[in-house]
Structure formats: C-alpha cells, structure tokens
Design brief:
mainly beta, 7-stranded mixed β-sheet, 125 residues
Length: 125
C-alpha cells in the first residue's frame, strides 16, 4: 500500500504561481512513477505531468513552459511548480503513484495505482 498526501493548493490570481507537493508513504520502494492529474468541474480527470523513478517526464502540452514536475531529495515527494497560472488551470489536482512488484521468481509484475485526496487550485481572472 502507498498513501499520498497533497498540499499547496489555494486561490491565486491569474499570472500567479503555486507549488503543489505530494508526499508518499508506505511501500515507496515499489513506486515506478508519480504524477499529477487535474479535474475541472464537469470534466474528466486529465494527466498534467508525470515523472518516473529514473527522471523521465511527461507533461501535457497546455502547461509546457509554465508547469514543472520534480522529485524531492528523498524520492518520496514530488512537486508541481505552476507558474503563469490561467483561469483554465482551475481544478482539483490529484497526486498519483504507480507501483510494481514481482511476488515470485516466475511471476509477472503486479502494477497498482494509488491516488491522493486532491487539492483544489482556483485561479481568479
């Protein structure tokens, strides 16, 4: 099991910045990727950015150049630095972690996914 706790959301004016944090606990050695997704009212949850344990980053086009994802020093925390925020960035932001472990020598890997409770980001125009 992996537990995720997000922080850093809030109300900010258009053009402002916020930094979201997500701290993982539990079986963090099994984490292969972590990332951020957002869900605006009435819309589906969408990927914002992900980062693998080796540092590979995937980031959605609409936030490239404005948002950056990174690992903390202990590799159990990720950050999402959000700059030049726009009203369309308003959403609940969820932290996500994917884990993989192999329960036996001849077994296939078991992949699991975990979600945080979400942190709300509101950008006022």
């Amino acid at each position: 099991q992996v537990q995720l706790v997000e922080s850093g959301g809030g109300l900010v004016q258009s053009g402002g910045s916020l930094r979201l944090s997500c701290a993982a606990s539990g079986r963090i050695s099994r984490i292969t990727d972590m990332g951020w997704y957002h869900q605006a009212p009435g819309k589906e949850r969408e990927l914002v950015a992900t980062i693998s344990s080796s540092g590979n980053i995937n980031i959605r086009d609409s936030v490239k150049g404005r948002f950056a994802i990174s690992w903390g020093n202990a590799k159990n925390t990720i950050y999402l630095q959000m700059n030049s925020l726009k009203s369309e960035d308003t959403a609940v932001y969820y932290c996500n972690a994917k884990t993989r472990f192999v329960p036996c020598v001849e077994c296939q890997g078991v992949v699991r996914e975990y979600w945080g409770q979400g942190t709300e980001v509101t950008v006022s125009s």
